[in-house]
Amino acid sequence: MSTPEEKLAELSITLPEPAKAVANYVPFVISGNQLFVSGQVSLGPDGLVKGRLGETMSLEEGQAAARLCGINLLAQCKAALGDLSRIKRVVKLGGFVAAAPEFVEIPQVINGCSDLMVDVLGDAGRHARSAVSCPVLPMGVAVEVDGVFEIA
């Protein structure tokens, strides 16, 4: 069975340096056997992915933005744990999508992150989830996702 790091390599994904906090919080907290990762925004190699679904972005662009959030979540996990194999399960993801009032495909956007978790972690990547829309997100980003992980 492949390790999460091997799966990332198979998917041609290189984890970025984890983002630093932009306000009065920490990027992650370990409490007991759980890792809580603060919201990770749609930030990729070309910078912030900004916009609003249903106005300036398509569903596919939103899914790609959510996938970036997932990559950033995994980067924070790696920083916290040193080894992604310590993740026993993704417990819950909370997805936030900047969207026009008429845009209702919020769950499909967050699938971009959920699918990545399953691709990298297999059954351990299956999780409970929230997916909500809002009129605006920090720095004008399109998507933000936070996560709770059970760890060894």
TrEMBL record:
Top-rank lineage group of the source organism: Bacteria
Instruction: Using the record's annotation, list all stretches that form the Endoribonuclease L-PSP/chorismate mutase-like domain.
Output: 7-140
Q: Which Pfam families match?
A: YjgF_endoribonc (PF14588)
> Which chain regions cross the lipid bilayer?
none
Do you know which InterPro entries this protein is assigned to? Endoribo_LPSP/chorism_mut-like, RutC-like_sf
The record, for PANTHER family, names: ENDORIBONUCLEASE L-PSP_CHORISMATE MUTASE-LIKE DOMAIN-CONTAINING PROTEIN, ENDORIBONUCLEASE-RELATED
- Name listed for the protein in its UniProt record: RidA family protein
